[in-house]
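LAB NOTEBOOK - FOLDING QUEUE
OPERATOR: T.R.
BATCH SIZE: 2
PURPOSE: Compare the predicted structure-token outputs for two unrelated chains run back to back under identical settings.
PRIORITY: normal
REVIEWER: second-year student, initials M.K.

ITEM 1
FIELD SEQUENCE / FIELD STRUCTURE:
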Amino acid sequence: MINYESITQEVDTPRALLLTKDKKIPMLWKVLSNKYSDLKFGSHRDSVGMTAAMLGLDTTDAKSKILIYTTGSKKPERYEGLQVILFLVSGNGLIV
């Protein structure tokens, strides 16, 4: 698990960042991080939504947000899929 600053700066691998209001990293996020070691997972505590606002995300909902950074990208895409997340790595980035 890596921190927010390094996950936004690295561009050579696909990354997933969890923005959450919780103090602890969810167990599912830790399990995914261990299972998919070819991806970089990070978690950032965004208690008042400042980070989400800086990234241009909707701050009206109180839910946690998952941001996906594809290989070579510094701009995230918000993952808004089902609760079960399957990550596949391809040669040109991350397929969710």
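ITEM 2
FIELD SEQUENCE / FIELD STRUCTURE:
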Amino acid sequence: MDGLPFILARAGDDTVRLIKSGRGRRGVYFTAREQMSRQIIQAMVRHCDGDGRLASRVLGVSYSTVKAFNRGADRVPAAR
């Protein structure tokens, strides 16, 4: 995994297995983009004290996008 960018090196185990197998339906780029988007959205929701609507306005994405990417997120206490 030495040749992969830093963010892919920190990807979840499922993503790493998908990349190594070469069987990703959408390819490495789309998988990495989805993982990064999820991390950014979840971080912004935490920063906004769990307010998904505020996070969507700050990020310039729809509230439904924030809900979709934040679904199943670990419920981490908001940043203070």
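REVIEWER COMMENT (ITEM 2): The chain has one domain: 6-70.
FOLLOW-UP: none requested
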